[in-house]
Amino acid sequence: MEEEREKVIIFPKWKDNLEEQAKKAMQENQFDEAYQYFSQLTENGVSSHEVMTGKLICMMELNMQKEAEDLCEELIANKDQYFAYYVHIYSTLLFQSSKYKEVMYLIEDALEQEDIPDHINEQLRHMYQLSTELQQQEDKQSYIEIEKQLEEAITEKNDRKQWYMIKRLIQLETKNDKKLFREMLQDPEIHPVVKTAILEYYEKLNPSTSLHIEKFDLLDMIDFKELDSVLPTSFFTGVTKYLEDLQQQDPTKYQMIQFILERFAYVYTPFLPQKENYELLAESLQYYVNRSFHFVEDNDDRKTSLMKEHYLKMLDVSETLYGTILDV
C-alpha cells in the first residue's frame, strides 16, 4: 500500500494524465478504454470521488454488474462524505437490473442511517416508490403463475411441488385468502407438511376469519388473532426445559434432539402435546436418539415401550413425513 502511495506522489503528472485520458475516453464513449485508465489509477491508490464514480459508470456501461455492485457496497460501507451519491448510483444500478426489492432495502437502510441531501433524498424516494409499484406488479404476475403450478401439483399429487409453491407464495408481498388454500387445509389427502406451509402463509396474511384444519384425523379451528405462532416458542422452550442437563453433558446429542423436535412440531402443528406432557416428550426424544444410535439396552426397551410408545411412534412418523418433502 505504501508503494502505491509513493507512485502517486512521485508521478503526479502521470496521475493527472491518466485522469485526463480516462475522461476523454468516456466523452468519446470508449468505456472499455476509460475503464482501463481508471483501473490503473485505483490500483495505484487513487480513490477520489471522481475516479471511483467514473470507474462505476464504465462498469455499468460494460455490463460488469457483479463487479459494479461489489464496488458500490465497498464505497457505501466507507460512509464518507459521498455516501449519498454512492447510494444513488447503487440504487440506480439495481433498479436497471430489475432488483426492486434490493433497491427498497438499500434506500430504507440509507434513509434511516444517514442525513441525505434534499435533492438526492427526493430522487431516492421517487425510485423507492417506483420500485415498490414494479415489485407489486411482478408479485401479482408471479402469484398467478405460482397458483397455477400449485393446482397442477395437486392434480399430480406431487407433495414436494405443492410445498415449494406455497413457500414461493410466502416470499411474495402479494397475498390473498384463496378458497383453494382453505380447501387444502381440510383435505385429508394433502400432506401435513404442506398444510403447515399453508398455515405459515396465513400467518403472514393474518386473516380476519378462522381456518379449519385436518391432520391425522384430528380437526381444529384456528383464529390467528389468538394464535401465538404456527410454531409456538412456548412449546419448544417448554420441552427443552427438561433437557437442560443433557445440554451441559452432551451438546451434540442435545442439538440432534432440537432438530428432531423442530421437525416433529412442523409435521404435527397445531396438534402438539399439551404442557403436562412436555416432560414425557423430552424423555421420549432422548430415548429416540439413543435408540437410533443403539445406545439402549434390551431391558430399557421393554421398560420404555410402555411409557413412551405413543410419542416414539409419533416421532417415527414425523421424521418419515418431513423427510418425504425435504430429504433430511
From TrEMBL:
Protein name: Tetratricopeptide repeat-containing protein
Native organism: Gracilibacillus kekensis
